[in-house]
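One such given next:

>
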Amino acid sequence: MADLFQADALDDEQLEYIQKEFFAGFKRYKNSDTLPVELDKYNKLDDSLKHQVSMNLCRDLLREQKSNEGFLLQHFIDDVQSVYCSDNRPWVIGYSGGKDSTAVVTLIYLALLSLDESKRTKPVYVVASDTLVETPLVVDHVNRSLESIGNQARRDGLPLTTHKVLPKPHQTFWSCLLGKGYPAPTQSFRWCTERMKIDPVSDFIKDKVSQHDEVIVILGSRSQESASRAQVIAKHKIENTRLARHTTLANAFIYTPIDTWSMDDVWKLIRACSLEVTISPMGIGKKWSNEYDLEWENPWGGKNLTLWNLYKDSSDQGECPMVIDDSTPSCGNSRFGCWTCTVVTKDRAMESLIKNGEEWMQPLLTFRNKLAETNVPANKDIYRNFKRRVGKVNYQRVKEGQELSSVRAHVPGPYWLKYRKEWLTELLVQQREFNKNGYSVTLVTEPELHAIRQEWLNDPNEPDWADTLPKIYREVFGTDLNWVINDNSSFGELEAQILQDLSEKYAVEPEMVQKLLDLELSLEGLSRRTGVFDKLGTLLRQDWGSLEEIKQRHAQLQSKSDFDIHKDQIEKYETEILALDKQAKVDF
């Protein structure tokens, strides 16, 4: 492997660091030669004199000293170069802007830089997934990093390019929550991950597979940080190679170059300095030692101090990994998650940022907490329609030991349209205030606004004939977007009000009439109206009216259904009774 390494493109400091510093083992510590004796002395002290944290650290260090001394950084660079040069499959690096993905990009950048130009034969794509609801500070950091990496790679003649993928406009967080009325995500209904993270990255990978037949996806996964993720990758490991098969994408493979690294190793590379263990009467600790002029520098000419500050004062929070399939762990507790995340009880990352000087983001945390409140069981019936998006009232499943005939609560549907309008207005007002105060933040993008408007106009339960969204935007910003004119609709707010008045007079549901009229307009001009009666039947079979009226109708239908279920048995009994009656008459 080592014969691929060339130092010509590296400066003296980089070369010294690569050939001197150890990673993924006991020798990562600068004082590893004298450390075992000091640890042994500490270990023999009376337990009453030792802190539990230091005792655990001492035990871990002694165990690692016996089992794993580690490798020079050049060993890992050699490994990357060997895998890179072994075939012509392009690489896709998952980059979230966090510590692990930054370490991976740094390692691969150094590996390409120290590779002969003639061997830099295949493209490397650095891909960041922007959910459009990332924490604003992280968005700025990722955008600047992608630009710096791409620009310096071009100057260095590396086949490395940067890309940012986005969810489709109708699949974003706000399009689903404000447009379709999806409830804020929970552990049991985490609808956001696939739409906003998995699908955009998968589409990018599939596109590269279509161009190159196969690709290798590079991840910053580490065994120490996610045991479950490590098990999934190990399960799909290809024997005698450094690669594993992708769990869901055909012709895609996984390579994890820092899978044996600890968090200390990750920060050591990012800081570009040494690390040593300190032992004193106060206990055991770790101290960074700046022996190199390149401290905090990354190979693309930037400084990693911004990244350190993002993690500062958030001791138990990691980063949101590049999500490529369902086995990737949740990132709700991380500093690099979405600011709207309600999967966790409290957003400690956002709270930490605000506490450490980013008070301007408090409105985002307040709004996130407001969304979380809508998932409190007592609040669901307030904020959510009693009908699902299919127009039906659904009921909870029968629990174990519960009678089939017992009364069961209904399952709430999407958010009421009135709350979605309020929340969109609040977001747009906050976006205006952020920008007025010098913070370049877009909370809801223009494509999302267009997607939300179409969802409102065609809402299955509450069609917005008033076309409210353009009016909300105009009231907040005093201007208009290039709204699409809906040629299929000749109804507006006035017609909706007339329909409301007539519906009260004739005791019909206005929403049902609205949907029937919308269906008629959508079929206008068709030469063949195939299936029109099926569509009409589907609409008419939906649950219309108040919840109590619907429940009453369901109860009547259930009684009839119960009769229908036992109809055959009843007929059998009736036949037997008639036979007995006839026999009785014969006997007498």
About this structure: The first strand starts at residue 22 and ends at 23. The two ends are 107 Å apart (CA to CA). Residues 136-156 form the longest helix (21 residues). The mean pLDDT is 86.
